[in-house]
Amino acid sequence: MAADQKSPHDLPDVAGLSVAVLGGTGDQGRGLARRFAMAGHRVVIGSRSAERAETAAAEVGQGLGAGADISGADNAAAARQGDLVVVAVPWDGHRALLESLADALADKIVIDCVNPLGFDKKGAFALDVPEGSAAQQAEAVLPRSRVVAAFHHVSAVVLLDPEVDRVDLDVLVLGDDRDATDTVRALAARISGVRGIYGGRLRNAHQVEALTANIISVNRRYKAHAGIRITDV
Amino acid sequence: MAADQKSPHDLPDVAGLSVAVLGGTGDQGRGLARRFAMAGHRVVIGSRSAERAETAAAEVGQGLGAGADISGADNAAAARQGDLVVVAVPWDGHRALLESLADALADKIVIDCVNPLGFDKKGAFALDVPEGSAAQQAEAVLPRSRVVAAFHHVSAVVLLDPEVDRVDLDVLVLGDDRDATDTVRALAARISGVRGIYGGRLRNAHQVEALTANIISVNRRYKAHAGIRITDV
Questions:
Q1: 3-state SS record for A212-232
Q2: Which residues form a coiled coil (chains A, B) (predicted)?
Q3: For residue B1, what pLDDT is reported?
Q4: Does B204 touch chain A (CB under 8 A)?
């Protein structure tokens, strides 16, 4: 293999990068924050209220021992502090939050894991998004950031469970910037058991977000916390 | 467990059912026909031209030995002969074919595995479908049939490869009729290595069809024939 031919499995070293999790007081946000802190990252939980973020950070940090570096801040301060910024807010507030943080997020890798879903008596279903997907909305609102879509299918219950050492799923990582998707694939792989698999361009993010509705259906039928693995990779 | 409480893993016996594969001369159709014939099903390959269907059936049957029962017919005759009918036509001809076969397909389980995709220089992408998905279009056109969506992500290359004894993937099976989805889950499980996993209602079929674009991206990046497995199920 020529030196300039990169293996699709090569990962950059992201161990020294800090991670901010916006909307980090929700289940998915706390779950991801917990796993990144377990992996040794400096983690900042962001929330509208700095106080609630600090409370969540203290709670998540409690189970992790003295080495864990996890703090709370309002979303704007968290966005400034993170080398990588995960967006884990409810879909309702997605656009408004990102618009308000466009300056703080400039030049950063922004990792969108938001699933625009509705719920009715029949279960979950995908919502229409004018931009195509939450990730594409983020890209439209944050033209100076490098937007990557990832972490859609991780079960918050599993991430938060202290009995689970190894998380049995692959994270599909989508984006149009190879370095950014490689960085996020490496971040995913910091969670024990997880692989970060390149899953296509951002224009194909809708179905990955929407597939969460199917995974919810699987969970109901099988009483599971399902995830997906990609075979032959 | 009470006798009327069904395990989500229970499967009906489908060994005696015949399978028609409409559009069965294409790669995916031939691949599925081959695997169902290997499992001992009577298989009828359907095509616009009975002659081309017979040629494809002979070709697929060649590698399978004397026990295989695989024949060809025009699509209408194939639709009448199959206990279960798989729709594997190109998206272009999907609506017109099903409209023409509405009578032949009445009261049958129709298994739609069509992926409405477009392709350009950047790869594959999901097409907009007025009904939401190919499967929902089938449901709209075939009100007297029981439409199930399944087999979207199976690699034709793998299905057709005589060296592959065990196919390493799960088939997501979607539909609103429990008996029909259970039957199709059982059919999927007739392929060695495959599980049929309930994946939600038909209204959530779009993203399962569209995810094929992501799998094509995975295949390009990793030089793989990727599939998906569902974890914790």
A1: HHHHHHHHHHHCCCCEEEEEC
A2: none
A3: 47
A4: yes
Q: Which of A6, A203, A221 to mutate against chain B (most B CBs within 10 Å)?
A: A221
CA angle, residues A166, A180, B154, in degrees to nearest 5: 60
| Rama region for A61: left / alpha / beta (φ>0; ψ in -120 to 50; rest) | alpha
Return the SS3 of B215.
helix
- Residue A1: what pLDDT? 47
Helix locations, chain B, DSSP H? 27-38, 50-62, 75-81, 94-100, 134-141, 156-160, 178-189, 205-222
| A205 vs A122: CA distance, rounded Å | 24
**Low pLDDT (below 50) residues in chain A:** 1
Residue ranges and CATH numbers for the domains of chain A are 19-222 (3.40.50.720)
Q: Give the residue among A43, A47, A54, A95 at the shortest CA–CA distance from A74.
A: A47
Candidates B119, B125, B75; CA nearest to B96 is B75
**In chain A, whose CA is at the least distance from the CA of B117?**
A204
Helix (H) or strand (E) segment spanning residue B196: strand B195-198
Structure tokens at B126: 């999901």
| Chain A residues lying within 8 Å of B168, measured CB to CB | 231-232
Q: What's the half-sphere exposure (Cβ side, CA atoms, 13 Å) at B131?
A: 15
pLDDT value at position A63?
83
pLDDT, position B194: 98
| Chain B residue with minimum CA distance to A207 | B207
Q: CA dist B10 to B13, B83, B181, B190, B193, Å? A: 10, 21, 12, 14, 17
Q: Which residues contact B130 (CB under 8 A, 6 or more apart)?
A: B137
CA nearest to B148, candidates B157, B140, B156, B138: B138
Provide the token pair at B219: 């295949």
* 3-class DSSP assignment, residue B88: coil
